[in-house]
Amino acid sequence: MLRDPLLPLPARISERIDETADTVTFHFELLDEAERKAFRYLPGQFAEISNFGEGESTFVIAGDPAKPERLTVTTKRVGAHTEALHHLYAGAIIGFRGPYGKAFPVADWKGKDIVIAGGGIGLAPLKPIICHVLNHRADYGKLTIVYGARSPGDLMYAADREIWAKAPNTELVVTVDKGDANWKGREGFVPAVLRATAPSAANAVAITCGPPIMIKLTLPVFKDLGFPAERIFTTLEMKMKCGLGQCGRCNIGPFYVCKDGPVFSVAQLQQLPQEF
Amino acid sequence: MADGMKISRDSLLAALRKRGALWAPNDAGRWAAVDSLPELGPIRPRRPVKDLFTPPRREIAHWKAGAGPAEIEPAQPDETPGSVFGVRPCDARALLLLDRAFLQPPHLDPHYQARRDNLLLIGVACQPGPNCYCGVFGFGPDDKDAVDVMLTLQADGFAAQAGSPRGQAFLATVSGGAAAPAAAPRPGPRPDWWTGLPDPKALYANFDHPIWRELGTSCMNCGVCTQYCPTCQCFTVDDESWKGEIQRLRIVDNCQRSDFTRMAGGHNPRQVAASRLRQRMLHKFSYIPTQNPGLVGCTGCGRCVDLCPLDRNLFADVFEIMKRINQEAERVA
Amino acid sequence: MNQSLRETVKNLFAKGKVKSVLGYREHPLSQAVVATLITRSEDADTLIFDDRCVQNLARALTRDLPLPVGIVVKGCDGRAVSMRITEGDFAREQVVAIAMACAGVKADGKTFDERCQRCEMHVSPLADVTVGDVSALPKPEKTRAETIAKIKTMPPAERFAFWQKAFEPCTHCYACREVCPLCNCAVCVTDQNAPRWIEQTAKPSSNLMWHMIRAFHHAGRCVDCGECQRACPEGVPMHLLDLCLAEDVEELFDFKTGVKQGGKWPFLMFDPQDPDSWLGGPHRG
Ligand SMILES: Cc1cc2nc3c(=O)[nH]c(=O)nc-3n(C[C@H](O)[C@H](O)[C@H](O)COP(=O)(O)OP(=O)(O)OC[C@H]3O[C@@H](n4cnc5c(N)ncnc54)[C@H](O)[C@@H]3O)c2cc1C
Ligand code: SF4
Ligand code: SF4
Ligand code: SF4
Ligand code: SF4
Ligand code: SF4
Ligand code: FES
User: Fold this and answer.
1) Could you tell me which chains touch chain C, where touching means 3 or more CB pairs under 8 A?
2) Pick from C85, C102, C136: which residue ends a domain?
3) Contact residues, chain B, for A82 at CB < 8 Å
4) Burial C113-125 (b: 16+ CB within 10 A, else e)
5) Residue C285 domain-assigned?
6) A91 is in which domain, residue-wise?
């Protein structure tokens, strides 16, 4: 018989990492061995995660797509369910359903330079792209990552960043809005730092994720750097419930963000009503 | 041509009961299990027939508080064979729209599918009322396209026509039926001022038109129109607990509700009345037709017109919007 | 009355007293009376007022309308606007009340609404201009006390059973909330999920919870326009409960909702002298 697509699969948290004061990364594995072995996802796809009895919410799968048995989500505490999730530790059971949504078209990007601008928790959807590019290093050109957060304490993925910093043909620029006594790195907002880093747009695609205000200020920088709207990508955030294109919540124009997105090129976004 | 049949009430009931469970509208206008064929009102009941297929509150799974993963019990789709008596064409056509939402690969809803597969739709032709608009959509009160069998009440039984092979097969099980010529389909009612369905693209192109704002004052987003609409598909997912038993539920919801799009942190892209009213109208008359050429997100049942506490009339509003848009387009040309 | 209403509105526009006006119009196609917002003097000719103007437009007052906004009000509607001013939703000068001499309205198109039959305030106490003949308005035919006597005289157990049964058909659609001019919380308790005070689906416990909270939040605030009752697609008589509370508040706190602007109002006021008969005191009938 068909499985109810709204029914979550049980998964066990294998590791919890407190990234910042309000952000936690969970690594977890599906309990069912057959499901675990068969599971695949692409960069940018998301999942519905539940703390059973407390609700369900949407998170991008923020792991390495080449290791689909070890799943990852990074969650920021903003409301009822994310609060409940943050009470869970290694060993706890959560519900998982996915993957949902359209992925970043990484296959189309072969042979191109990749420029990534992320802010705060916006690094989560970008991480699978970075993993994918590093896994297939020869397929892509230069990888530039500009990552910023409000303060040094708000920077996520410390261990990953160490790897990225040493990766071949990769430039990682980390910045904070305002440093503290121990901060020796860069200060400045992502859009300004991106402008200063000035990656070439000649044969490149740009991807940006972060707080709405950051995205708003970053897009003109990409434009100034010479990126056409078709080669700038972002993800659209919209309240979601089902992830299947059924509950109607994420409907915008003739699209469902969960099914037709959440990844959109800026050219596609320009066609949508300016509702969001 | 004898593609119709004449059947008696008793033999119909006998055949329906042989098939299995029987559902029909009750006095409160809700769909309930019945033992006999009730007298029906002249038109659709208060609640749409979708309640039987995608109930306002449907369990996804349940478990005991603190249960392990093995004890999470998925709800089982209801595969009881049966029939629904007294389905009106507008409600039946609305199911075709819901099929589009819930039977779309790869994410089929097995609960919905089980009901669709197992429940025979027995239509009964209506005596259209003042708020019946099926004619707007090109069908009428005895339309048989979306039901399995269409019945027309007669003094001594029913005139029956099959609307599907499944219905044809069912009619063959009704005893004592006599072949009879089928009557020509009756046209459905529509307002005399109605000139045709709006152009989905033109509506969408006027997303920012001030008319939405103007209409916004005449709607309080109470959501009654969408709650009783036979085509509305929206739902939410949430957990409820009661005495140590927890349920994961799929609960009816609608785009008029203030928290429909309100995100964590309080940002709501559809904060004002006008934007939610626009969502409802555009979803029905622009987005659905754009996604599915040939379909419109409304079947003209008129419940929203009947029940709107602010006496709004969807069709009058759609007409007014298009008139304004067309006039302005002409002025520009 | 339509003519003098239109003149009045044009006059308000001409004198710069309003930037917009909320009123009623007859929809040219459906012939139904619907709410309308006009922003130009010439559109005043679409405005009407008669016994079909059942809706309470006070709910449509929002701060994003072009202010000051004129609003066509019946007696009950005006009390709602007044209460919203008292509660600080609007500054007094942002709203211009166009008070109609209202003889009553007919939701069913035939007889005056029950609330109109016992109406004591046919003209809004908040009135910047008055339209129509206020001297020729009907006297109340019955009283609120009569309407709620049936409930007030029930013994507690019977009364509880009555309400449980009354709330049974409720589907938590919250239409009653959406049309209520005083249901103006930024986020209603029904929509809060941390904690979730009221479960989203209907069951005896959540029905009771919703209707109790709703009634208490309306104590001393309900203006008896009856919109909630009229909006309810399931025919739940929740407004009766509001009436019971209104009776209590008037009696215990000597407060009539929306009659005077400003000052204190029972819902948000605490006074050690407050009557507390309902707090463990002898059971009130
Ligand atoms: C495609 C996509 C990917 C996302 N990826 C991440 C991620 O990797 N990490 C992260 O921390 N957050 C992510 N979010 C946002 C995250 O889904 C919300 O912050 C979260 O659902 C809030 O849940 P809550 O119960 O704590 O908040 P509440 O305000 O209590 O919300 C209640 C419910 O409403 C829904 N909801 C509320 N806000 C949102 C929202 N912004 N987006 C979607 N559903 C919402 C959820 O179902 C939630 O359970 C993503 C959102 C989308 C749409
Ligand atoms: S709209 Fe048409 S199909 Fe529906 S109840 Fe009325 S007459 Fe029947
Ligand atoms: S029923 Fe009427 S007032 Fe309520 S949301 Fe629908 S159109 Fe608006
Ligand atoms: S929009 Fe109104 S008329 Fe159309 S199907 Fe829905 S309730 Fe019926
Ligand atoms: S978006 Fe609104 S109109 Fe469309 S199906 Fe959902 S509730 Fe109905
Ligand atoms: S009382 Fe009526 S209007 Fe109010 S929530 Fe219940 S069903 Fe809806
Ligand atoms: S999340 Fe349900 S339709 Fe997109």
Assistant:
1) A, B
2) C136
3) 264
4) bebbebbebbbbb
5) no
6) 9-100
